[in-house]
Amino acid sequence: MGIPTRWPCASAAPWWLAGPWCRRSRGPTAWVWRTCPHRPFRWRRPRQPHSRCRPTARCGPGAWRRMGNWALKESALPVRVQLPARAVQVAAGDTHSFAVDAQGRLWAWGSNQYGQAGDGARRYFTQPVRVRTGFAVAQVDAGMFYTVALSRQGDVFAWGWNGMGQLAQDGAAFSAKPLRVQGLRGVLQLAAGTGHVLARTDAGLFAWGDNRSSACGAFPSVAVQARPHPIAFA
After folding, report:
1. Mean pLDDT, consecutive 10-residue segments, the chain of 234 residues?
2. Do 36 and 46 contact (CB within 8 A), yes or no?
3. What does DSSP assign to residue 2?
4. Do 209 and 165 contact (CB within 8 A), yes or no?
5. Per-domain boundaries in the chain
6. Rounded CA gap, 126 and 128, in Å?
């Protein structure tokens, strides 16, 4: 997977391309790194930072402690994240990251200013912390300041920022506690965008959240899709 366009400098690259990327390893670790925006964006082991990226300068927007290795510095090379158990899935949001272990336990690190890491006690975490979901997690995904998770029973839960209806709850208050998304049963797969969520079931595809560009399959006059909306295919 690659990005077809090259940007000559960090200021020219879209902000949403400057986030960290994670990959799952075979052992109880996950690998995460930031890519230099002066180089093409590719799925491969990153090379050394570009010469224009000074060691003390940030390559793109703030790191927000997403490395999970106690450090508050960015890295253009993979950094090992120590986890208490073997990771079977990883996911990265705009400012936070997750890992799911074989028992369905969820681990989070990074920014937590809206409770997107699932804990209301601190604003950020420099190492993985256990998210007390109350259910075994089958899949997790994350967007800009919010998180969605799929239970092994097929239910969907969301937490974090709710400014554009990402949590599918009344109002716009954020939550550090996983909240169940009503109206969905037997969900098979989740996908989180910057501000909207997709859920696939046997009955079809549903979406909610930011709909200003019709990402939820409704007319853009409905800016916020606060409940799961079925997407019709022609």
Report:
1. 37 37 47 42 38 31 48 81 94 96 97 92 90 97 98 98 96 95 96 97 96 94 95 86
2. yes
3. B
4. yes
5. 15-230
6. 7
